[in-house]
Write a structure and sequence with these properties.
Low-confidence stretches of chain A: none
Radius of gyration of chain A: 19 Å
CATH topology of the largest domain in chain A: Phosphoribosyl-aminoimidazole Synthetase, Chain A, domain 2
Order of helices and strands of chain A: HHEEEEHEHEEEHHEHEHEHEEE
Oligomer: homodimer
Number of strands of chain A: 14
Strand content of chain A: 15-25%
Shape of chain A: globular
CATH superfamily of the largest domain in chain A: PurM-like C-terminal domain
Largest sheet of chain A: 7 strands, mixed
Number of helices of chain A: 9
CATH architecture of the largest domain in chain A: Alpha-Beta Complex
Distance between the termini of chain A: 28 Å
Mean pLDDT of chain A: 94
Amino acid sequence: MQSKQRILLGHGSGGRLTHDLIRTAILSKFGNPILDKLTDSAVLPYREKLAFTTDSFVVTPWKFPGGDIGKLAVCGTINDLAVQGARPEYLSVGLIIEEGLPYAVFNTIIDSMAQAARKSNVAIATGDIKVVEKGACDTIFINTSGVGRLVTRRDLSAQRIKPGDAIILTGTIAEHGLAVLASRRGLDLDLGITSDCQALDSLLVPLAGKIGGIKFMRDPTRGGLATTLHEIAESAGLGIIVEERKIPITSKVRAACELFGIEALFVANEGKAVLVADKGVSGTIVRNLRRHPFGRHAAVIGTITSGAKNHVILHTSVGTQRLIDMMDAEPLPRIC
Amino acid sequence: MQSKQRILLGHGSGGRLTHDLIRTAILSKFGNPILDKLTDSAVLPYREKLAFTTDSFVVTPWKFPGGDIGKLAVCGTINDLAVQGARPEYLSVGLIIEEGLPYAVFNTIIDSMAQAARKSNVAIATGDIKVVEKGACDTIFINTSGVGRLVTRRDLSAQRIKPGDAIILTGTIAEHGLAVLASRRGLDLDLGITSDCQALDSLLVPLAGKIGGIKFMRDPTRGGLATTLHEIAESAGLGIIVEERKIPITSKVRAACELFGIEALFVANEGKAVLVADKGVSGTIVRNLRRHPFGRHAAVIGTITSGAKNHVILHTSVGTQRLIDMMDAEPLPRIC
């Protein structure tokens, strides 16, 4: 009953509760053919087709191995455009700052944002600053919205996915969530895990423009790879079989997951993408991805099936099969 | 020294400190020809020229006479597009919610947003939900970004303003800030002041498309009319003379300002615009504005001068003259 009456942390997890909230309380009110697609970026039907996306970042702590909230806010929105097959071009930046934030921290975050934007040749076109009194927000929250130009001939859409299509992952999983978690707990123990926080435009946009057989892309952030695969299965109305041994993962991540007692499949990534493509072009895609530093560990990890509709089945390394559910609540709040 | 080392509430006031922060710490890092204009919306050079804007809303309390944070978030971004001479078309919505927010409040806010968007025929195209733990934010913060199509033949720009141009205000001032303030203090005393929170697209966009003599528009929100006039004077590198007795203001607002000891010129509006236009078309503009329910009290309130560069001079009702400065710090934090 409680969960029906109040918003819970899990409603922001990106998992099942988020999906339920969006479907019951948001789409019923805001719904329109563009929003209803629930793609990472909306496609705006101008004379040039544009992608449009938004994301708020509330990560704590504001700095972690491999990045900070500024880099994350720019890369995250660039990635939402890139997985829609759009070249990121313009960002907006909305800052909500807690009174008393040291200038040095503010400047570090702004520098990170400027550097990340420059690297992807994205212009920050517009912005807004709000300051709230001490205690009314935690350090700093950043919203970035983005506009980009579609490079694909056909819109990427889960509705184009067919049985037999290949599922490709661009690299190793679970590094971002673990890097944030380790820095949050103030562990002196250095896990040696760095967030994968990075902009994927240079990896994905040229590929999306070139290879028509790519049908859908998504970056597995909150809720991890498992949640993204679920979203794909449900949007396509098909099943997914994933081979555990083919999922790229480092031994450090494996060890850290055991230490914390969490499952890597549900841990957030911030520099990876899942691609669904015609089986016939999957080899070409993987070869192309591996030539890029952010795609060195790219691999086909599974396949779309006509059976087990809306389900994700994991063929485990030990030869068993199990159903992978969408993340329910929130094991690691505020990792992005 | 303190103010150099930490972000203060005043840095979010929209006044002098905000301007200083943007110029010293933001534009030096993010600067580019589009952002540097510091217009309410950026103009994106696509084949159809698009306006792009963002705003975060942190108003407290979340509900006030005449509106709530949801209505404000939709109308505020619509207004930033409208004052750029753009027809608002697509919004993004980024929600940051404090864990434990009652569903009833959430639904009320979503309903307000949906209703405001529908009224202006704007589609919510994309969105994001974050939930933070209790105490990590105050109730709910909303970012809306917006995209619209320019209807003007020439871009509205303060650089087009010339001495002799007329300054037009679309209606009475200071209602939003006072309505929020009164509801915040929990006064039983009913001031009878309702926020002017409303979307100005139907008032401004047809006019901007029709009358070429309109050179610049801005909605006087944080920092009030005084701050907006200052921004105009400084952007144009010219002076402004304003006639106090021509500024529309209700007797209730006058009384409330005396009660609270604040100056109406510095109090936020959320449903008004300042227009700068050729003197020759100012009569036509005022007549057009007055035909619309949101422009009934429109009036020419002042003029652009070549003297007193970068300054705003008020000709008071009692016959004296005084310099009106930009708001320095923040008398009323979190009114939007």
